[in-house]
Amino acid sequence: MRCIVRGGIPLRGTIKLPGDKSLSHRAILFAALAEGRSEIENVLLAGVTKPMLEALTAFGIQWRLNGQHLTIEGEGLAGWKDPTKVIDCGNSATTMRLLAGAMAATNVSGVLDGSVGLRRRPMARIVQPLQKMGVNIQSTEGCAPLMLQSTALPLRGMEHHLSVASAQVKTCLILASLVADCPSLITEPGPSRDHTERMLGSMGAEIKASIIEKDSKKLYQTQVMPLRGELSPLQMHLPGDISSAAFFVVGALIAPASQVWIETVGLNPTRTGLLDTLAEMEGSLLIEEMESQGGEPCGCLDIRSSNLRATTVAGERVVRMIDEFPVFGVAAAYAQGETLVADAQELRYKESDRISMLCQELRKLGVEAIETEDGFCILGRGKVHGGVVESHGDHRLAMAMVIAGLGSKEEVIVEGAEVIDESLPEFIPLLRSLGAEITCEN
Ligand code: S3P
Fold this sequence. Notes:
UDP-n-acetylglucosamine1-carboxyvinyl-transferase, Chain
């Protein structure tokens, strides 16, 4: 599918976004590990969450969906059965990495596989530490397919030092640590999202987070105690996805005379790096905080067109906005001045090499974008030209390029835009509801 974006039109109105992707993945999976009936409201139903839901069926877990309301009948860790077929994780690394941890905790045997794109994503980062804990798991040269065989429980509780902050790896290891013989400790160099700790904590798991200083660097530690009983079921209304909101936030900042109100999104501080950065760039962005939902801070956003100024993003801030760089690159192109991003090498291992592909596609729109090993430099001139750009099979790059078109005087055409359905099938209809003029054709 190609989307043709006619820019220069104000975005005005109110939108409500589907449930958070990370919370949806976790709620689906953790409810299946609990004992009893869980009720989850506003779950995200998109390309990346469907494989997780379908995997539950393969593991013998019953679930029902009524609109966005999901009911899951958990039978505890012992209720999981060996699947009779290969589990297809689609394009979702979160599904694969979290399921590997859940399979270790439930001691089932099976194979996890996925799309060609997912087979390229690094899996040694979960396979090696799981093996050290005693999990019988093999990869295919560090990638999917992953083969797991049941083994003697308990697993070995131990210390893991992650070289890259990663909530997916952390979650995988937390799940395996629930059935270990002693407490485990996971140390990360940055504040990766802590939804797992909050959600499993609310279900009865004992998980403690702390920050220590070593060699004058901050380290983020997560201590996991072995489970002493079953996990309690989950009752949760999921807030809207702040990473999806990010596209509309940048769209409203760069399209002329815009004012957009975004209803209840998650504002977990491990996810709000982009909002902090855009505020530093002088973006007009008001946050109305609300009562938290299921232990997750929430709020509404008011965004108005702004003249953005260039900035620098590095260190911990990178981790707190790890999914937002494609659209941040667009904001940087519309800002005045040189924006620098460093310490962001991990972007090369996402759905596409987001450093290379973002710079390459922005250049097609006349933006001066220079790739570095661990980031990029964008010389913002307050505008982009028209042009034809590609998604490279990356949903966030596709959406970012559509947003880039909203402020342009000439048409921006985004090829491969069908991939947007991976995380936000409502993206184009929601933009149109705010006044955007976008035509899509197959
Ligand atoms: C996610 C963690 C992040 C993020 C991904 C979702 C999660 O990945 O990029 O979209 O739900 O845990 P990493 O853990 O690889 O940083």
